[in-house]
Amino acid sequence: MRRIVVLAILSFITWMSSVHAMHGPVSGCCLGVSNTTVRLWKIKNYTIQLEGVCPVTAIVFQTERGLRICSDPQSSWAKKAKMKVDEAKRLLEMEQNKKASTSDFASPVPTTTKAPVKQGRKRRRRLRLKSRSGRKCV
What we know:
Layout lengths: L1 H22 L19 E7 L8 E6 L4 E4 L4 H29 L16 H13 L5
Antiparallel strand pairs: 1-2, 2-3
């Protein structure tokens, strides 16, 4: 008898959670789209929201201040903003790949450094006078 009651309670909890998940909106979903536009350089990232889980299909842009803008994916502004973010990500990835490729490999030719040449007192004085007056000393 006790097992039947526990099984019934677990079934009820599972059923309630699935009903709530299907009929209640997800907290991160846009409920509608807006015509709000901001300057393209302020947009840092975007995500695509599909209609299956959320009520509308939208592109959610994130600005540098952390604001979220829900935009219609078919609008010209949204397409431009999406291309701008994609281009910035592509350039950043290329730059990181370039840095990684140059720092990953060791130089095939060993590099040597010259030992500092010890200069005499007269040589140092001639160089100092040369740099002051701009004339050539022999």
